[in-house]
Amino acid sequence: LSNIHYRSTRTALFDGIEEGGIRASAYSSHEIDEHENERAMDGLQDRVSILKRISGDINEEVEAHNRMLDRMGNDMDSSRGFLSGTVDKFKTVFETKSSRRMGTLVASFVALFMLVYYLTR
């Protein structure tokens, strides 16, 4: 009789703990799911803020490059005007001088260029 009483007491004692453990485990898994969701949302918010910062940096970089390209375009236009004037002056010089002097001048420039090229190489 004492053995049966011991078993029923033991069973009642452990059945309550196991049921409580199962309930606590289910509650705990629900809390864990919420905690994981909150952590995932925090991670997504961090990623969104990082992407927002990166897109802002890209925008600033694009605007800086556009300004630089505009300046380069303006510089190229002014250089084109300057070179056009220089070419016109050369045409005037070439037309008024004899072709023999012109050939000598061109050959001298080419020889000078080649000499400087081989010396710096």
TrEMBL record:
The chain crosses the membrane at residues 102-120. One of its GO terms (biological process) is protein transport. Keywords: Coiled coil, Endoplasmic reticulum, Golgi apparatus, Membrane, Protein transport, Transmembrane, Transmembrane helix, Transport. It is a single-pass type IV membrane protein. InterPro entries: BET1_SNARE, T_SNARE_dom. It is found in: Endoplasmic reticulum membrane; Golgi apparatus membrane. Residues 31-93 form the T-SNARE coiled-coil homology domain. It comes from the Eukaryota. Its main location: endoplasmic reticulum. Required for vesicular transport from the ER to the Golgi complex. Functions as a SNARE associated with ER-derived vesicles. Belongs to the BET1 family. This is t-SNARE coiled-coil homology domain-containing protein. It comes from Aegilops tauschii subsp. strangulata.
